[in-house]
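Work Package 3 (structural annotation) set out to generate three-dimensional models for the target panel prioritized at the project kickoff. During this period the team completed the workflow that converts sequence records into discrete structure tokens, so that structures can be stored uniformly alongside our sequence database. As a representative example, we reproduce one entry of 145 residues exactly as it appears in the project archive.
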Amino acid sequence: TVKVLGKGSKERILYVNDSVRQALADYLKVRAHLSCHDKDALFVSRNKRRLSDKAVQLLVKKYLAYAGLGGKGYSTHKLRHTAATLMYGTGQVDSRVLKDILGHEQLNTTQIYTHVSSEQMKQATALHPLANIDKKDITPREDDE
């Protein structure tokens, strides 16, 4: 887990997968040799200060350009939005869990990220209790009339 200080100085815990855990462990080996002005900062700039939101946005913009995706409307927020939409789209992540992952106070804020695909609607319809009812089971017989 990683403890973060989010919007509004709200502290929350992020759960990370093995690849993120390994990437952080590798980075921390390098980070240990930097003397930083802010001991609580995980990511620091060349001038040994905590990376600002703007610095992160500029780094993302730079690497999007390297990937050939510059000028296409991508941003840190769009990446966050995409990650949330993909998590929700698996059908494995409940919207309330996603709300907590994103650090939202209200579920309706999270619902902006929860686009429903045609495939999800098709699957939900197939799961309806009456979806597999046989027509002959509901057709009146002549002797019932």
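The mean pLDDT is 86.
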